[in-house]
Specification:
The protein has 326 residues and is of the alpha/beta class. The protein has two domains: 104 residues, translation initiation factor eif-2b, domain 1 (Four Helix Bundle (Hemerythrin (Met), subunit A)), CATH 1.20.120; 189 residues, 3-Layer(aba) Sandwich (Rossmann fold), CATH 3.40.50. The strands form two sheets. The chain has a seven-stranded mixed β-sheet, with helices on both faces. Helix 6 links the parallel strand 1 and strand 2. The two termini are 16 Å apart. The mean pLDDT is 94. Bound molecules: 1,5-di-O-phosphono-alpha-D-ribofuranose. 1,5-di-O-phosphono-alpha-D-ribofuranose (RI2) binds next to helix 2, helix 6 and strand 6.
Amino acid sequence: MSDPAADIEVADSVHRVAEDIDSMEIRGAATIAAAAAEALGVQAAESDAESPAAFRAELRAAARVLADTRPTAVSLPNALRYVFRDVDGQTVGELRESVHGSVAEFCDRLDTAQNDLGRIGANRLRDGDTIMTHCHSTDVLACVEAAVEQGKSLSAYVKETRPRNQGHITAEALAEMGVDVTLVVDSAARRYLNDVDHVLVGADSIAADGSVVNKIGTSGLAVNARDRGTPIVCAAQTIKLHPGTLTGHTVDIEMREEAEIVDAETAAEIGEPRVLNPAFDVTPPRYVDAIVTERGQFPPESIVTLMRDLFGESTTEPWAEQESHE
Ligand code: RI2
């Protein structure tokens, strides 16, 4: 039996965005969400579908290509869901317009949410405080930027975040804001936690029980921070809330290539060990002091109320519908 979905045309530029997300040229949960939404806009612009049904089928196929890239950051399917929710029209032209409108509105909301979240997170930070960061999170940086704009002077221990060293991006961004930056290897974090007032991390997904799914190494940092009595705060827009976890689904943890950890030659030299490269881990809610969103600050255990408000029980994937010849 032939697969009707295989005949559906997806724009080359959508495939390129998907490849860039997969290879982490485009990375960070919020950035991935914006890129995926914009890619749907490009699909709509470049489509030469002759019927509304064909146009919709192409849009679904484009969304599937994007959704299949990285499994952990729920901002990606949440972005696709958002765009699909508002697509409406009787003609291809009307549908195209409505995709563009929906994408623009989504990207505006992302920017506004990050600014609002930043102002709320900044209230936790006092003049002279020292933070510790893990990985690179634009939601975390928004909090620091807002605090700096309020005239607060801050210092930061920045964990390098093996294997991809996204800590370097954070170090550069914080230095540009005028923060006094110290870069440390991941395993040095505990040594410096006594000098730290707040651990600030982002999230790729937040589960209904308040667990924070974030870059590998977050959970160890949180346990150490709790041991030292240092508050750990997660900055995450509501697009990081994982609606599937309301109905018992778990969050997939992305496993990446061995080569990110050890090259083939070194692997051969050291006896070809099995290599595991999980990109994320899960920090249980008891190790998290607060989740800062654009809707306010929440204890992790109460995030479920916000999730129900925002998503209900809806976990639909409109792009996953079976294709048929129309
Ligand atoms: P923002 C990143 O994942 C990090 O885990 C970071 O904390 C998270 O996305 C959120 O990023 P990756 O894409 O949305 O580097 O706050 O694997 O920018």
